[in-house]
Design goal:
The complex is a heterodimer. Chain A is built from six helices and four strands. Chain A is of the alpha+beta class. Chain A has a domain of about 110 residues. In chain A, helix 1 packs across helix 2 and helix 3 packs parallel to helix 6. The longest helix of chain A has 17 residues. Chain B is α/β, with parallel strands linked by helices. Chain B has one domain: Alpha-Beta Barrel (TIM Barrel). Chain B is built from 14 helices and eleven strands. The chains are: A alpha+beta, B alpha/beta.
Chain lengths: ~180, ~400
């Protein structure tokens, strides 16, 4: 047993600080909060993401694939290739000098195979330091765990399409097959 | 560093070393089996009244304080005469010596108490046995309805050891099913924990997370400290210095001899070997230098935690636990760190689900400052009584 500092931690996805109850009546909500509140509610509802209510996490831009949608796409590709993933699998990933505690968005414990979707709304990019990403990529291409990191945007921060995300995972699975892991 | 110790707000008053149980994990020692004399008891109360600067909460401790119920009564009644309601009393008891007379006295004088009870019979009796070896669960269980009738908010205090780690799921659920709404649980940190024990414990926490989540979703008010405290340090505010443990400062302990210690965990046998931990006595007052030494040591930044993302949310701030497990207030036992890194994600994932699903009780409990009062009013009015377990 050892004392290890947790460098980044992002499992708490509920708000910090005092939460104030939202007025349920849209008329008084508008009167108190102005048009902005209604627009935010409309945007959030338009996203149609389970669990995201007007009092939940901030809305995402409509043109970007949501994490929920991305997860569905990615999971389907894994299933198509005979790999079942467990959602939010808790993992302590250690490398030479450090460690990181996180829930892998999808993971098969037996094969040590999975993916992690970096959601900008939850500051995932800040959570995974460059050092951590490098270590994860080295493990992915080496002895494992083999975790593919999926960015929602490309190098220029342009949102990836559903097809691009699917293609990335298909390429990852082909690589795993080549390595004899699946 | 210039320190200005604060007023004493909480003091444990160990009125006896004697105990009718012989729990093998207990840090309190029976010493020479002595109890506090009435003179020392009076001296302790006068000392605290002088130090408190307004008010002070005194918790009867031991040994088992009900072994000296006569002295306890004398102290409570005498203090009420001399100091009115400036000094409040609480008690930590194993519950085995309770009877109608004692319960009536405690209720009438508002001496609220916490009940040391690890879980169900199997979990409790693994360690909490009478001196002769017989388990204590049955002796406590028969008093639970009366205890909860006198005070429905009575806290059950449970200790988890490596031997009982695999049983806390059943144990904690049993406590809630008995009617407790508040369960405070901590690990026996100095015990011989290893990775296997933690894996077992993790599995139990997952089971309890499901239970806790289902309870809140159905509107049942439950408090389980391993979960509640970690959610609070995120949703409300992280621990600051002295929040979790303020030993030797606003919190002290007084031994049967009248010697003052930083916390009950330092009393030991209250003999020569423990003198190094004393910070004064009730007749001569504080040894200021000793007191400040302990406060400084407790407040000192823990090098091993600097920069950790979980700092302010975990139990490493308790100098008493550190001292008991490692012999040093600043040195954290690895089990605390391993335990927190295992537990925190379990709690936060559950809390995130409750938040995202807009569970009313979760939001009220952790984000409404008026929740304790509004909840109490609801209880008094019988609202949600069926959900109060």
């Amino acid at each position: 047993m050892k004392i290890r500092k947790v460098r980044r931690y992002r499992r708490a996805r509920y708000p910090r600080g005092t939460w104030r109850r939202r007025q349920k009546d849209p008329v008084s909500q508008t009167a108190k909060g102005g048009l902005t509140s209604l627009l935010l509610m409309a945007l959030t509802d338009a996203c149609d993401v389970p669990g995201l209510g007007a009092t939940g996490p901030p809305p995402v831009m409509p043109e970007m694939v949501t994490e929920h949608e991305a997860r569905q796409i990615i999971n389907q590709v894994f299933v198509d290739n005979g790999v079942t993933l467990q959602e939010d699998f808790p993992l302590v990933f250690r490398w030479a000098q450090d460690s990181i505690v996180f829930d892998v968005d999808g993971y098969n414990e037996e094969l040590e195979v999975g993916y992690e979707y970096l959601n900008p709304d939850y500051s995932d990019h800040q959570y995974f330091s460059q050092e951590a990403v490098t270590a994860l990529n080295e493990a992915r291409d080496g002895d494992g765990p083999h975790i593919e990191i999926v960015e929602p945007g490309d190098y220029y921060a342009m949102p990836k399409s559903e097809a691009e995300i699917e293609a990335q995972i298909r390429a990852f699975i082909e690589k795993l097959k080549g390595m004899g892991i699946i | 560093m210039t320190l200005r110790p604060t007023a004493v707000r909480y003091s444990a008053l160990s009125i006896t070393h004697r105990c009718n149980l012989g729990c093998d994990y207990c840090y309190a020692r029976q010493g020479k089996g002595v109890s506090m004399s009435p003179d020392v008891a009076r001296g302790a109360i006068e000392f605290l009244a002088g130090q408190a600067n307004g008010w002070c909460t005194v918790t009867f401790f031991g040994g088992e304080p009900l072994v000296e119920f006569g002295l306890l009564k004398e102290i409570v009644e005498g203090t009420a005469r001399r100091h009115g309601d400036r000094i409040h009393f609480r008690m930590s008891t194993n519950g085995t010596l309770l009877d109608d007379e004692k319960l009536a006295f405690l209720r009438d004088h508002e001496v609220h108490f916490v009940l040391s009870l690890d879980g169900d019979e199997k979990q409790n009796d693994t360690h909490r046995r009478f001196v002769g070896g017989r388990g204590s669960y049955r002796a406590i269980e028969r008093h639970i309805p009366a205890v909860l009738e006198a005070n429905p908010y009575t806290l059950a205090v449970s200790v988890v050891s490596p031997e009982t780690a695999g049983h806390i799921g059943r144990g904690v659920k049993d406590l809630f099913s008995k009617g407790f709404r508040y369960v405070l649980q901590t690990l026996d940190y100095p015990a011989g924990w290893n990775d296997r024990h933690l894996r077992i414990l993790r599995s139990e926490y997952l089971e309890l997370a499901d239970f806790y989540e289902a309870s809140l979703r159905s509107g049942k008010k439950v408090y389980y400290s391993p979960f509640d405290e970690r959610i609070k340090t995120w949703a409300q505010k992280p621990y600051g210095k002295g929040d979790l443990c303020d030993l030797a400062n606003s919190q002290i302990a007084i031994a049967p001899s009248g010697t003052i210690y930083p916390c009950v965990q330092f009393i030991g046998e209250d003999g020569r070997d423990d003198e190094a931990n004393a910070i004064g006595n009730v007749f001569d007052g504080f040894d200021r230098a000793r007191r400040e030494y302990f406060i400084e040591e407790n407040y000192a930044e823990k090098e091993s935690c600097r920069g950790c993302a979980l700092e302010g949310r975990c139990a490493t701030h308790c100098g008493c636990v550190n001292w008991r497990a490692t012999g040093d207030l600043r040195t954290i036992p690895p089990i605390i760190c391993e335990h927190e890194r295992m537990l925190m994600p379990i709690v936060d994932r559950m809390a995130t689900r409750l938040w995202k699903d807009n569970v009313e009780l979760f939001r009220r409990k952790f984000y409404e400052k008026s929740f304790p009062m509004s909840s109490y009013v609801e209880d008094c009015m019988g609202i949600g009584k069926d959900n109060a377990q």
